[in-house]
Amino acid sequence: MTAYILRRVLQMVPLLLGITVILFAVIQAAPGGPEGALLESGRFIDPSVVEAYRARLGVDQPVPVQYVRWIGAALRGDLGVSFSTTRPVTEMIIERLPATLELMGSAFVLAAILAFLIGTLSAVRQYSWFDHLSTSASFLGIAMPVFWFGLILQLVFGVWLGWLPVAGTGSLSGGGLLNHLQYLVLPSIVLSLRYVAGWSRYLRGSLLGALRADYIRTARAKGLSEGAVVGVHGLRNALIPVVSIMALNLAGLFGGAVITETIFAWPGIGRMFVQAMFARDYPLLMGILLLGSVMVVVFNLVADIVYAALDPRIRYE
Fold first, then answer.
1. Count of alpha carbons within 13 Å of 58, Cβ hemisphere only?
2. Per-residue pLDDT of the chain (317 residues; tens, 9 = 90+)
């Protein structure tokens, strides 16, 4: 297992290097440039001023030279300087990362709990009214646009009922932990919706297959209670593929946070990514995209490790 992990970590290096090449090429192919905001201001800008501005930002060199300089600095933890704020990109990402991780973590925990309960009850009570209702709700949750669902929750619980705040994070120092958690409720629900729907369906199907296995009939023949049969023998095997899917979807939470944080004005990396796009802040965009790519690769490795830990039949030689 240790040798497999080391081998996978070594494989991540050329993979991430290839990803950075593609991302850098896409960013360079984007229309406009860091001087675009100056040229679109409607004022006359002397060409020499534009060239001096490009030289100061380091974007006057050929693209391969820019990439080599960028990747060399990135390996030292330096992702460049933001065009819009002139602050180090690494510093800006570290500053916003805790808010995004908090939102991702709360959404993941909420989705896991609800999916576990809904999927288990749907499988145990197959074809019951609850099973039909949860199936319909799951299809609706998968098909529903995240931004629309977020706006509906803001309208209902924030505007009409006035129960929950609709934007921001609150203040731990001013309002306390409870006040902060109130700001976290709606964005966590929105971000977790799609995963509750998908994971509950996966768990239902996996548990239904496990409950039809021979060892389940043997456990029942021995006189074990239905709770022990389902909870100890059924769920333990049914969770193996589901937990792997959950680990893979962790990176998807990062992508979903872009829309959720924008809707709820959550001060995380997702909202900063949208702001960077409008500002044509290419170093900041590149840094955020690189972080997302690293998360995808790392969580794929985590999914493989979790799968092997849960299923003793899996051996990596």
1. 14
2. 677 778 888 888 899 999 999 998 888 777 666 655 555 555 556 677 667 767 776 777 888 888 998 899 999 989 988 878 888 999 999 999 999 999 999 999 999 999 999 999 999 888 899 999 999 999 888 888 888 999 999 999 988 988 999 888 876 666 677 878 889 999 999 999 989 999 999 999 999 988 888 888 888 888 888 788 887 778 878 887 888 788 888 878 888 889 999 999 999 999 999 988 888 888 899 999 999 999 888 888 887 777 777 766 666 55
Domain that holds residue 59: 2-74
Q: Are the beta carbons of 209 and 150 closer than 8 angstroms?
A: no
φ/ψ (deg, to 5) at 88: -60, 135
Question: Hey, CA dihedral for 31, 32, 37, 39, is it positive or negative?
Answer: negative
Evaluate whether residue 316 is within a structural domain. Answer: no
Helices and strands, number each (H, E), in the chain:
13, 0
Q: 171 is written with which tokens?
A: 């203040």
Torsion angle of C-alpha atoms 131, 137, 139, 145, degrees rounded to 10: -170
Q: Can you say whether the dihedral through the CA atoms of 127, 128, 134, 140 is positive or negative?
A: positive
CA 113 – CA 119 distance, rounded (Å) = 10
**The domain spanning residue 210 has which CATH number?**
1.10.3720.10
Same domain for 295 and 148: yes
Token output for 19? 């990803």
Read off φ and ψ for residue 58, nearest 5 degrees: 80, 20
**Element holding 208 (H helix, E strand):** helix 176-211
This prediction's pTM: 0.86
Supply the DSSP string of 61-74, one letter for each residue. Answer: S-HHHHHHHHHHHH
Residue 84 lies in a domain: no
